[in-house]
Amino acid sequence: MRRQDFHFELPDELIARTPTKERRGSRLLCLNGPSGELTHRQFADLPSLLAPGDLLVFNDTRVIPARLFGRKASGGKLEVLVERVLDDRRVLAHVRSSKSPKPGSEILLEDDTPLQMVARHDALFELEFPEEGVLPVLERLGHMPLPPYIDRPDDDADRERYQTVYSRNAGAVAAPTAGLHFDEEMLETLRAQGVETAFVTLHVGAGTFQPVRVDDIYSHQMHSEVLDVSEAVCRAVADCRARGGKVVAVGTTSVRALESAAASGTLQPTVGETEIFIYPGYEFRVVDRLITNFHLPESTLLMLVSAFAGYRHAMHAYREAVDQKYRFFSYGDAMLIDRNPAVDPAEVGCAE
Predict the structure, then answer these.
(1) Bridge-partner residues for 35, per DSSP?
(2) Measuring CA to CA, how many Å separate 233 from each of 56, 85, 104, 105, 306?
(3) What is the pLDDT of residues 102-126, one digit of tens each?
């Protein structure tokens, strides 16, 4: 398959640069994968679209205020975007400046807090924070790492709205955005009607916005992300299967975590890293339904959606979403997709 197979025209005015007033205030496009049928709903309708015994799997990662501004000791301005927290005092980060800092050099943040440039690892820089520690410095000086297509500075409201209400494990530099639509009241409603919940952790990296630069998508190298799928999650999925419920992944990150943990053919507890790349032709082992936002043209996330729903159904749904003026990307509207179990990998020339 080719990268351009996943292109669609997106008017700039459909990019959601601010969130809705209420979390559940978005629209919901329902796509039946097997038939391709589309239904236009509101996200507030979600409880009526799930059944007692279903299992919602959320990603409980918490976004850290990962963007920092400062200067080199020589005076040149720079910007730091933390990609991964290595330990209490060290991170891997992207550094934007006129000249890259050298190992042993010092970076001074806005209030003169010093960071030490330890080493360079390809495109990333290993930085050491002072004894205060990484997370306290980020909380004090950091800015929320809004996606590049939200072309405005972050504000105080983003600290709360670019974060799911159930986030608890700090480490992501991008939000698992399908979860932004859930509020506490909806979660309580779902629990009261017998919908079960489980939580995986996948720390979303800045690479989630990395474009696919190769024409042949099979040559694309995915970025690595840290994940944790517990024994409790595996039991919850097994129990859901036993009672005849559906496993509903909230977000593509939850899909990637679950399917990575089932790479051997059986879902099992997994702690480590994943570089899983899901595109049409992939055989899903765990997930039955997917709640997700609308993604960038030619992105790996759109490829995952196309694998889940079927390429033709997914691309038709995106064209319909544009025609109906749905709001796109992180602060945008959502989809509820039923997996298409009979996807033909050859439908757009996929060789697998």
Answers:
(1) none
(2) 11, 24, 43, 44, 26
(3) 999 999 999 999 999 999 998 899 9
